[in-house]
């Protein structure tokens, strides 16, 4: 569509509007007043913001190293702050402080107000550790008050929460340390009691003892076999000798026996004490032989029934046989004693094995409890230092970087915008209606439309003309229209001024009705 065609439509729209000027004026008036009343009814919106700085004082951390845990900043600080501010705990305290605790008759009304406050709060993360908290409301004073209260409660709650978290962690670790200490003392008492009631020694000592006893038993078995052989041989020789003989060799035989007994005694004293049974028997035999030798030296032995003396060799063999039998019994007793000691060593090794398992369990429990207790003491000290740091303001502290400013002007579309846009928007709406009517209407308003009809030829175009009577009527109508517009304009401006300078809505409506 070219420019000429557009101007044709403009002329047609203007002619249509002029033909219905009073309707157009009435519609424009209605729409203008409606837009202005929307601006009156729409409450102003005031907004204010505070910038918070999340200060992380890490100067203490390099000094303490790993001895203390300083509260760190989370990755998404704005979400953390938003979650805390939006929590019912914070909003309930803010609403009670601003509106009063008894301002709400029911919990539902208080929840509705909390939801309204939550929807009007905005939390945005800025560069670095800066966070901006904004609030908007239809009252400048309430906006300023609620925003300051929200930020103050948040900062105080963050500090209290951080201190409470550190204190709770310290108390928990302290309880765990006390619990592990009790378990450690109990395990130590069990270990002491076990060690004080078990004297079986070590497994190596018992194994050495068992090896020694086995070696001794093997030696005794060999000695017993030798003793059996010697005893049998003496018995065999004794059975071949006569019991009686001449008295010529009596003294020599007794001396020979005495020397043999002394040699045996000297051999036994190398390994045994004088209280040993075999040595005691040999002493008795030596005493007897000495008495016999002394008697033979002073007088002759008494004669026997067949005028013959005892055979000295027979007496010597009998003595040797008796000594061999005594030694054999002694070896057998020693073997029994060694076997009993070996059995006791085996039982002792069994007890040591059982005690070793129990001792390992007690030692393992003691070591575990000791390690855990020492770790808990270290963690307790860290928790104590962390608690002191949080109490003294170390770690993450939210500080007021930029205070809130009192909102003197409302934000967004104000009443002046509605007042100025009312007539313009109304006129544009009316023009749009007439343009749509012309485009949709099937009437022929241009000569070019006739040319497009097939079978119809355009001969000439006659321009529109008006008579003098129509001109007079038009002037009268224009005069009334002008008066109507002046009256509506005065009413429009009067209502705007009344609202601007604080007139009530009822007075404004009455003023608009004239």
UniProtKB/TrEMBL annotation:
Signal peptide: none
Keyword flag Transmembrane helix: yes
Sequence intervals crossing the membrane: 24-41, 415-440, 480-499
Record carries keyword Membrane: yes
Keywords: Coiled coil, Membrane, Transmembrane, Transmembrane helix
Chain segments annotated as coiled-coil in the UniProt record: 203-271, 335-362
PANTHER family named in the record: CAPSULAR EXOPOLYSACCHARIDE FAMILY (PTHR32309:SF31), TYROSINE-PROTEIN KINASE (PTHR32309)
Name the record gives this protein: XrtA system polysaccharide chain length determinant
Organism: Psychromonas arctica
